[in-house]
Amino acid sequence: MKDVTQLTEGWSLRHGEELLEARVPGCVHTDLLAAGAIEDPFLARNETDVAWVGRRAWTYVRELTHDSGHERTDLVFDGLDTAASLTLAGRPLGTTRNMHRTYRFDVTGRTGELQVRFASAYDEAAAVRAVTGERPNVYPEPFQYIRKMACNFGWDWGPTLVTAGIWRPVRLEHWSTARLAEVRPLVTVAEGTGRVEVRLRAERTERGRKRRLRVTARAAGVRAEAELTGDEAVLVLEVPDPRLWWPRGYGEQPLYDLELTLSDDSGPLDTWHRRIGFRTIELDRSADAHGTGFTLVVNGVRVFARGVNWIPDDAFPSRITPERYRTRLTQAADAGVDLVRIWGGGIYEDHAFYNACDELGLMVWQDFLFACAAYPEEQPLRGEIEAEARDNVVRLMPHPSLVLWNGNNENLWGFRDWDWEGPLAGNSWGEGYYLGLLPRIVAELDPTRPYAAGSPWSGSWDHHPNDPAHGTHHSWEVWNRQDYAEYRASVPRFVAEFGWQAPPALATLRRALPGEPLAPDSPGMLHHQKAEDGNGKLNRGVARHFPLAEGDFDRWHYLTQLVQARAVAAGIEHWRSHWPVCAGTVVWQLNDCWPVTSWAAIDGDGRPKPLYHELRRVYADRLLTLCPDPDGPVLAAVNQAATPWRPAVTLRRVRADGTTLAEAVVEPVAEPRSVARIPVPEHLVPDARTGKEFLVADAPAAPRADGAESGEGLRALHFPVPDKDFAYPSPRYEVTLEPVPGPGDRVDVVVSAQTLVRDLLLQPDRLNPAAVCDRGRQTLLPGERTRIRVEGCGPVTVAAVEAALFCVDLG
């Protein structure tokens, strides 16, 4: 039987004349940081002080010894970052030039000093560019010439920290006769029967070529066996009435163990194990009266995708543990997310990521790794890209959460709109990958899943690549140039990217910028703002609704976070209310890779922003919203649950002082997975001319199947004028604290409103950096109260809580 030796210990990194202890998996930056050779590049402006690291060559060394008694020993690297030459006992072993591939070297009978020498990624990119010629991109860094995580070279939310190192596990595999070299399970369901078609390939030793090999597969109580014809075999498992895997909110996520054993007459030689799920996935791109659709269909059920975009959760991905993946993805699921798009400028994530998604019911949209650039299609890149795609399609295809392969991020759009055609002068730019090579590879290796050529992409060159009426759409004009109300100006078929910036939590800023007096334009704040004119866009977004808080950082911080939450909510509420024309929203972005002002809902230290809590509201199965419309506001009851929803909604036209001017009860009928839209009766529409009236819609909590209340009621608000034009009273409220009995450090903050209190927000990290609370912004009418559960805050006083509470206050 094959045995494996993990090579995690005993590595050193050459740093000048020194040998530093190296951690594998890891990278040069993390090793230098552990040795005290550099300061933390995530803090202050240290990023610029370590730029030299990415421009040097680095060498990892280790003694390699083994005595296994097997016929063959392979040295296997799951990830080398990036351009490396390897020697063993001074003799060449091989070279690599792709961060995203697995490498295997035959080291049978060989021992001695193993050296892995990494060239500077800049030098490697320059060498490739000299062969292929120049290609345009959106950043002045050469990421399109090297198969490396593009955002290593900086992005509009990320630092420029160009890594090198053994970033994924490395091991010795000792084996005899034969091993399982590739396993591809094609999992389908038809007429109540699950089918697992296992296609496999074995590698044999010279002696093993004469041996008779057989393979056994087991799943869900079903067994199949076959002999290998040459080096390949196909086994089929027919599973009657399997339990189906569903996205969260649609059903459960049963997983089945699929196990393979390769044997010869002497017994087992190798094994392979993954968990699989039975489900069907289709992508409906049919034309209709509105254009060309883009709707995911799971197990025959059409799904409005409640999505988030995912970037690497750390600028140094080797630091991301399975527990960290689980934490971040559980946060996503708890916010009502059911789809995570892995963006094309990052990495193909670790199995731990997809395992968590399998269990949590999070659908995964996987980009191939191309982003915001023209990519040469000549060698040496073309061969690397094909090998990379094949490697990762085979590696990831067992995961039932994986529902879509996508060719690239914004490159088809970039070719059309970003002035690439002239500089390219007819040279290749990647179209052959997205419309040729990649769909062929997916069709050959993983025909059970749909492929999309890019995001955005209208489906063909017959339409503009980012046409909102056709396929996927990226909505960035609003953040860049307009008020967030403009999200309501169109109904795209699928919004694959949109978002609004805000700074991270205050505790995150204080940790990242130690000792710096915080101001929107302080040196550290500007360094941790990577977007072009980012602060200008932030301030203009605030100024459209509020007077700018000159000289008051805390108020500026609150208002920018508030506008982020409102902006994203405005888009999602509008687009969800137009289901099924619009079939999904994928917010840019869920997470950050370091402490930074960005579009993320969870900041670089893992703290939820107010946007995170807003996602929990607008991505809930049932959403009540008041949508502005040219003919007057519309009440929309959005029901993504499997049961009908017939809420008795109380509509009130209310004055700023809390007086109800008119009231009525309406009863929308929202069938399962549908939307009910009702125009607001004319006598309830607030008079915008007064600047003193607004509209409130309240629905009671929906009963559960057992008759119990399912939670709090739902509220929607409509203010017909910008905040700065509304006659807000000076907010007054009372705060009391109620300790929560039981384990843990918990307290309920009870806020009782004496006036209209708009967008009340508790920032728990102001009480304690470890504190969290259970809700975001809320609006209270006079006489109403709310209860905010806070955990991890330690002993607190009313005064401390009051200092951590913010609301709209124009006084």
Automatic annotation (TrEMBL):
Q: What is this protein called?
A: beta-mannosidase
Keyword terms of this UniProt record: Glycosidase, Hydrolase
Record domain Beta-mannosidase-like galactose-binding: where: 11-168
Q: Offer one Pfam family short name for this entry.
A: Glyco_hydro_2_N2
Q: Kindly list the organism's lineage.
A: Bacteria, Bacillati, Actinomycetota, Actinomycetes, Kitasatosporales
Query: Which reactions fall under this protein's catalytic activity?
Result: Hydrolysis of terminal, non-reducing beta-D-mannose residues in beta-D-mannosides
Identify a single GO molecular function assigned to this protein.
hydrolase activity
Q: Which SUPFAM superfamilies match?
A: (Trans)glycosidases, beta-Galactosidase/glucuronidase domain, Galactose-binding domain-like
Q: What is its EC number?
A: 3.2.1.25
Q: Which family does it belong to?
A: Belongs to the glycosyl hydrolase 2 family.
The family database entries (Gene3D superfamilies) matched by this protein are listed as: Galactose-binding domain-like, Glycosidases, Immunoglobulins
- InterPro entries of this UniProt entry? Beta-gal/glucu_dom_sf (IPR036156), Beta-mannosidase-like_N2 (IPR054593), Beta-mannosidase_GH2 (IPR050887), Galactose-bd-like_sf (IPR008979), GH (IPR017853), Ig-like_fold (IPR013783), Ig-like_GH2 (IPR006102)
**EC category:** hydrolase
Q: Where is the Glycoside hydrolase family 2 immunoglobulin-like beta-sandwich domain?
A: 191-279
